[in-house]
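Entry 12.
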Amino acid sequence: MERHSTIYQSCIKILERELVPAIGCTEPVAIAYCAARARAALGEMPDRIEVAVSGNIVKNVKSVVIPNTGGCRGIAAAAAIGVLAGDETKGLEVIANVSDERKSALKDYMESTKIATRPAESDYLLDITVTVHKGESWAKARTLNEHANIVCVEKDGRVLERKEVSDSAGSFIPDYYGLLTVKNICDFAETVAIDDVRAVLDRQIALNTAISEEGMKNDYGANIGKVLLKTYGGDVKIRAKAAAAAGSDARMNGCELPVVINSGSGNQGMAASLPVIEYAKTLDVGQEKLYRALVISNLVTVHQKTGIGPLSAYCGAVSAGTGAGAGIAYLCSGGDFKTVTHTIVNALAVTSGIICDGAKSSCAAKIAVAVDAGIMGYEMYCNGQQFRGGDGVVVKGVENTIKNIGRLGKVGMRETDREIIRMMTESE
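Predicted 3D structure (tokens):
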């Protein structure tokens, strides 16, 4: 693939746009970011906060521990830490550097500040508006469809910043994402100049490996990574699952280390990268081959998620586990395109029914299952076995199957998503 071609340059832009650092689960952090932007616009510390969020934000904020809050969970805590200690210039690392003084002040601030929450009145699956007040003055910030996509900032009725928003709950994803196909991804991975992707992938390798090691060393959540290694041993297939699960357990349970996300999700960023890293170590393929495999795993994950959207009832670990399977197939097969495509189809045929019921400790176990399906998808094809068109939602051609899965996640599971949110909110 030519370096100056549209597809090549689009793949570079997608990797740089998607593989960015974030601290903690991205939904509460998105609230904190909105809150920090609103407070900055207000210009003083508010004495009242209002937060309006879509149902999928409620689902993903309810149970996860927010970093640098002393173990707090929930919408109010996310908004409060963003107002009190957020650095509005840092995007999804908004609460990465919170002083001990600010951490200790959070409880008192929440007790002395009225924080009201309500459902967002829109059809967007990712919709957050934070309004802050001080006396008669107010300011607000709103993000839509992507976690750090601020579309409006206002103060006292004056618009300070605005992006055009369509009337429908459409996508903000740039048109060039439509150039992603598995064939284009594999061609790009084979020909990309490593210096064009080295920085973004080195950051992913370093940050995601660090939080995985932290999760393996210490006690977080259900300790899925440790359970896998203790029960099944240290074979690379087990280590691949355990590494991603350990990172997720740490992240879901308040670890203050950052991760590099994929498709707006740290869990997906870890599931797409850490299993591939483990296989590359075992196979001793060298750094360049690892980079090319990570290009495949990350872009295959993005490609699947483009049709589904950032949030739905479809568990994003499935997309990332399939992406990891594709990267592992590339490493093990010497880059054979046919092996990669069949690995993707086989994996999607197995795990596409996993639901997303919010961010929490069980995400680590779902990641392990999804990565296992990715690996099994590769092993199946190596043994002359595959799922074929007509087997359930699988249709002939990898792109057609990915389109079906996108339709399933975005359209078919819409009512499932609503029912999950009702179940989770009724239990409070």
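Annotation: DSSP finds 16 helices and eight strands in the chain. The two ends are 54 Å apart (CA to CA).
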